[in-house]
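ZP: hey, is the magnesium ion complex queued? I don't see it on the tracker
AM: it wasn't, my bad. submitting now with these inputs:
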Amino acid sequence: MAKELWKGNEVIAEAAIRAGCDCYFGYPITPQSEVPEYMSVHMPKHGRIFVQAESEVAAINMVYGAAACGLRAMTTSSSPGISLMQEGISYIAGSRLPAVIVNCMRGGPGLGTIQPSQADYYQSTRGGGHGDYRTIVLAPSNIQELADFVQEAFDIADYYRNPVMIAVDGMIGQILEPIEWRPVKRRELPPKDWATTGKRGRKTPNLVTSLFMDPEDCDRMNQLMGENLKRIEENETRYEAIGCDDAEIILVAYGTPARIIISVLDELRTQGIKAGLFRPISLWPFPEKPLHDYVAKDNVKLVLDVEMSLGQMIDDVRLAIKGKKPVHFYGRAGGIVPTVEEIIEAAKKALKEAK
Amino acid sequence: MAKELWKGNEVIAEAAIRAGCDCYFGYPITPQSEVPEYMSVHMPKHGRIFVQAESEVAAINMVYGAAACGLRAMTTSSSPGISLMQEGISYIAGSRLPAVIVNCMRGGPGLGTIQPSQADYYQSTRGGGHGDYRTIVLAPSNIQELADFVQEAFDIADYYRNPVMIAVDGMIGQILEPIEWRPVKRRELPPKDWATTGKRGRKTPNLVTSLFMDPEDCDRMNQLMGENLKRIEENETRYEAIGCDDAEIILVAYGTPARIIISVLDELRTQGIKAGLFRPISLWPFPEKPLHDYVAKDNVKLVLDVEMSLGQMIDDVRLAIKGKKPVHFYGRAGGIVPTVEEIIEAAKKALKEAK
Amino acid sequence: MAYIYKRSEGLRDIPMHYCPGCHHGIVHKLVAEVLEEMDLLDEVIGVCPVGCAVFAGDYFNCDFQEAAHGRAPAVATGIKRTHPNQPVFTYQGDGDLASIGAGEIVHAAMRGEKFTTVFINNGIYGMTGGQMAPTTLIGMKASTCQDGRSAEQAGMPMRMSEMLATLDGCVYAERVCVIDIPNLNKAKRAIKKAFEYQMAGKGFTFIEVLSTCPTNWGMTPLKANQFLKEKMAAYYQLGVVKDTAQEVK
Amino acid sequence: MAYIYKRSEGLRDIPMHYCPGCHHGIVHKLVAEVLEEMDLLDEVIGVCPVGCAVFAGDYFNCDFQEAAHGRAPAVATGIKRTHPNQPVFTYQGDGDLASIGAGEIVHAAMRGEKFTTVFINNGIYGMTGGQMAPTTLIGMKASTCQDGRSAEQAGMPMRMSEMLATLDGCVYAERVCVIDIPNLNKAKRAIKKAFEYQMAGKGFTFIEVLSTCPTNWGMTPLKANQFLKEKMAAYYQLGVVKDTAQEVK
Amino acid sequence: MMIKLISAGFGGQGALAIGKNLVEAGMREGLEVTWTPSYGPEMRGGTANCSVVLSEKRIGSPVFSSPTDLIALNLPSLNKFAGKVKPGGNIFINSSTVSEKVERSDVNVYYVPCGEIADKVGNPKAVNMVMLGAYIGVSEAVKVETVETIIREMFAGAKEKYIPANIAAFQSGIDFVKQYE
Amino acid sequence: MMIKLISAGFGGQGALAIGKNLVEAGMREGLEVTWTPSYGPEMRGGTANCSVVLSEKRIGSPVFSSPTDLIALNLPSLNKFAGKVKPGGNIFINSSTVSEKVERSDVNVYYVPCGEIADKVGNPKAVNMVMLGAYIGVSEAVKVETVETIIREMFAGAKEKYIPANIAAFQSGIDFVKQYE
Amino acid sequence: MIRLTFDTERCKACELCAAVCPKHILALNADLVNLKGYHPMGCIDMASCIACASCAKMCPDSVITIEKI
Amino acid sequence: MIRLTFDTERCKACELCAAVCPKHILALNADLVNLKGYHPMGCIDMASCIACASCAKMCPDSVITIEKI
Ligand SMILES: Cc1ncc(C[n+]2csc(CCOP(=O)(O)OP(=O)(O)O)c2C)c(N)n1
Ligand SMILES: Cc1ncc(C[n+]2csc(CCOP(=O)(O)OP(=O)(O)O)c2C)c(N)n1
Ligand code: SF4
Ligand code: SF4
Ligand code: SF4
Ligand code: SF4
Ligand code: SF4
Ligand code: SF4
Ligand SMILES: [Mg+2]
Ligand SMILES: [Mg+2]
């Protein structure tokens, strides 16, 4: 297929439509308002549903209602809006519903700035909501991956009955890049026999709930969810490693910083420094073992974790590396995108300190 | 002073009043509704303010408004309600406001159950809201500590201009125990010259905001906050260690499981097993170094992390231990409180596996 | 041998947890009967609140979803928009609907979402043990206003039907109660009309049922009924508040 | 040498970021002038919204807080309850107040919180680039209703003043605009009255200012004024909606 | 001494108050005490219980799986907890509403017709006071006088007139279990 | 080839569209391309700019601190970015609205009176088309024909009548910079 | 003939049925206590029942079934 | 005498002032462009000004100051 120029935010919307998203509920927020705008035009054209919700709280609960009927439901927002959705996401996870949520992260905390950021890593991977649940988090670093992952996300969500989050820094939503609308692999999906479709002759009604008054039941439900999460950890870990095999320094980054680091690698190698990039694609489940194995090798002196935040993924990096090698950090917060030059300098500084 | 029998939830309220809490805003939720109930009666008696908010979202924003005027403001809730406050907490942190928030955790996710739980550890310590911020999290494990910590919390919040969370599992809110209203140490506090009190002759008006449109400003603000957080990490780490000096197994737990483990230790020692308890009191900042140092000693074979969740603090335990010793886990979720017997069995099983 | 009265097919054969004399049980029955009579049980999707009626989904013999506290109207919007031909209803208490969920109900009404809301106004937070609701009467005691609600501290009680009736999307709002058989019959007719309007695609329909909470009012069920009649109905006037088909009274 | 008109002391000497002809700037001036005239600048605490007026706190010459989107009424409650003798106001757009913040404004009005809300109804989300607001007129185009708002899809536009006026705690609600000098003068008088009522402790006061957003309406400022006069004011009637001191008109 | 008591009954029967009185008395006598309630989902008519620990040394767990003592004011409570009582422990049954018998032979069972006794002293509401008396009569967990002082303080002031009837109910409970000696 | 261009101006002047046309053309010619916008807080009247990368190999960073080329349609943009252009790079200034001169001598500066040129071809709105022409005339980043095809497609259908005027503006830009050769 | 059946284990003794019975023939049975701890409702004069079904309609717990036999 | 001062750098050329001037003496100055890129507003006939202040009151950006000198 021919390449076409697409803007990140519109790709999110179009990819969802191509994946059979039945309904979209959202509330405008920069830098992702093009998503509801695109949806408002195109969902009705496909006979699908678009509702501009009165708030992010309402949006995520509309997603709940539609998802509980067995439909493919989606919402998108940016950091403050995602914070408001935390109770709803916890309900969706607790009721074992599939849903797709996109967070175009901007600088926080609070109102912050509308510039891109990655400071919602904790919130995304640890569940900013209450209780023992996890959202599967995929972090594309270019528009092509964005197109692919959003499409896949609906299948993954249905497959595991668990919400899937696509986490991009706001910049990815704004970039215009050529992409190809290529088919993504489709999974065989379990029937949604739990959905509230109207009883329609079924003997017992379906009830979608996260309420388990008896703590024994609630524990059981949690353990069941825990097993599901383990299954996800086993099967859905994704990453990309570039130049890690002979690297003396491995840079770990996702999203925009990861693609910036591709330029960094070239530059460092020209300067005679063997640098590699380890890019987690699934932030949860985090590719713990592959990262560990790369870093454990003798050629690696140290790791430099690069984030558009004060350091959040670094917990997972450290957990993976288990103290085997020093982990350095370079991060910019509040909407600043680190430059190639800054990262090169940070890498050299780390190497110097390591000597 | 004489001991008095107090119920956990009422201690939260009374301690706040004694600490000079100027205003309380809250929304009822089991298992902590006695807090707003107590406040509704006693705050007006002290000429202070009680408002039953229309929701947790409103409550945390009322706290914001009052705190930004320089007052001691507080709210309390339980898991789903705390999820709804995440945006507001991020705003409070981003605007560098002091505030005290109590979470009486119940079983989740979603509506879950009203029974006690510790499944909001991630949310509390990693900031369930967006952006780079942290709440200071204190986890009392009996009513006396609850009384002390709630009082101290107001000073700590003012001192660092950062929200402080008291995280208790719902059971601690319900227990009736003898306590003493003993004076807590008071800090010298910086003047609140940033507060919006009305301009009153000041040359420039005060503006409390978390908005920093220019990402350079926003980054600067974040770095500043980051330094503040470092200061907190250096000064505010708390823990208790019982029998860790000669332990072959160290159990790590906080809150109710920690006190249950006191019974476990006795029992294990009678059975000839040297067990110790490491109890983080500040969940953030986590007592990483002390735990590391205890565990690193030769006598320790392994660590058993015990939580009323599927395992959340275990990340911090692992980060502290850096792979030096095996970390086992025992947890019950969804409102189940683990019994002495279960924990003993888990400890023995872990020891057996280690051999 | 014929039944003159037996439990509606709309309810499952499960004992309810409601307190003695609580009106939740009565209103459940009325809704179930209407659904059965209109032959909607196989089609309808209900949404229960967080509140004492949190278990409604266990009791009704139809598909149900449990919404987060106050969000039933948003959940129902998600359902109804994607199932425009199936009946959908929310069943909500006054804490749920008028307090934390005020934004959601107002917007569902504004958008004219074509579902029915059954609103149990018992002037109190039942499930959590009797705190003040936005609908608690002035002077009425609750655990967060132990000397009785005062207007100065907490404002005047909210009349949700009247407020929602200002929105064009709300096509029908009626306030009823179930303290005696005539009122109970009226309540049932109102609920039926709401579902009829819904199925005809008219817009948002709202039935406010003044109800008792004997437990948290600290009264016997019969005393509670009397209080409802004398005090509550005096502030919250019974009757049709809005009926676009029939012209407002 | 005397000034016939100069910038109010209530505003700081900082250029505003608003688009050419945007009414936010005009309403800022009116509020500032009223505060100056009533000698409240040293006492007042303002709360700005998330919306184009997010920068109001930089422009006004008085203490200000920046609230989360829609939560200004809750923030103002936190301020006013603890500072009952100081003037407090929120300044909010229609996305902020009528959409995400509907619950908070309704409850502040219900409780009769003694602060003033200046509500900028421009029928659109200005700051985020022109999405539909709950107040967008039927047929009016916005980026999330590019063929114009339809009642079927999005409901009829909300009349916030009328809705809030149903609540007893709201003692004064007036709808004004600033498209010409007579209306501008009326708007200023309304704002002043609201602050006077507030200082007299009467209750919640609400000034709805029909406003233009030339940028997102895609019109010149003058065309936008005309649209406001002809279309907007036809649906949103100008004038006093409620005035408990003066009896409702 | 280390008492682990579960006191259980219908909401409103006063099972929780029995526990509260015990820990209040224990505290006054210098014991370490904790009281932990547990409610079902129902507001009324459900079953409520509390776990009480009275101990001479620092209390670890405030909850436990096997009580040393059980007070069961209604049948569901008896069914739920009777099997969990430690061998050698005590079970107190309100035989006015519970007609079932305990089948275990490794525990001491006391059938106290609390309703009838309360009626007899003219204080039908004081079912739980009777049971409290019975429990203390057997267990001697705290001193009788301490409890009496607490009762007196509880009804101090306007409700003073209720003191004699409550003390009478309490005393009758103590008296009733003397037969088991 | 690796072009890193910043195109900047007042919102509405078309600085972002210049970048979009370039990446569209680049893509059609088989180049790797990215276009990243950056807005100020103002909705209108503020300054907007975009970062464009055109490259023969995989693009890493879509943003950069030192552009190889700068298009400045207004003064604030020139002030903000002129100092950051790589030595040897190109700066294109809309001299119709910017009267300032660039003081650096290590870059090539092109003063293009876009307003006047656009007026002259009878298409006063096509300021950005003139600048696009000027930029391509100098940089030869993409082929003239590719851009012309894109312009034709852009105005296909009802707006067809605008094609000649836009192509004329574009062509005048190319012609204007010939003097710098 | 009319048969009134009470599902006594479900009765919560709220007396709402008794209050709406036009014949005043419903009363709690002080001699019984159900598993929930209530004295359940019963009919003290079946013969007078007019089968108006008011009691059954009103009962929140669907305790009462009425049949014509 | 009346002095009208325009803070031209702040003018955004919205023309709201001109629209309310009863004397129709305000117009954009096509010869000037301010730093924001607008042709700023100016008075084309000072002598006719009646100092009604309508323009100044209306200006959203407080561009206009009016003095009696
Ligand atoms: C987010 C959240 N906040 C608070 C609660 C606690 N809560 C449960 S039910 C309830 C109110 C119930 O009152 P109402 O809606 O009037 O229903 P009723 O029980 O009176 O029928 C509250 C506050 C909750 N579950 N979730
Ligand atoms: C929680 C949250 N959701 C969404 C946004 C994005 N947002 C910013 S302003 C705004 C709406 C502004 O519209 P309005 O309130 O009408 O103000 P105007 O700009 O029109 O004056 C929105 C949706 C946000 N900042 N926070
Ligand atoms: S608490 Fe009140 S509302 Fe809830 S079931 Fe009991 S009586 Fe009904
Ligand atoms: S976008 Fe609209 S509301 Fe915002 S400043 Fe511009 S004109 Fe005003
Ligand atoms: S059917 Fe009518 S008359 Fe018979 S018992 Fe019931 S209410 Fe009374
Ligand atoms: S109404 Fe039902 S529950 Fe109440 S007393 Fe009568 S039969 Fe029993
Ligand atoms: S003061 Fe009046 S007359 Fe003079 S320029 Fe202004 S509007 Fe016109
Ligand atoms: S109203 Fe002000 S900004 Fe607008 S044109 Fe006149 S002077 Fe300029
Ligand atoms: Mg209620
Ligand atoms: Mg607006």
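AM: back. Chain F touches chain D through six residues (CB under 8 Å).
ZP: great, adding it to the tracker
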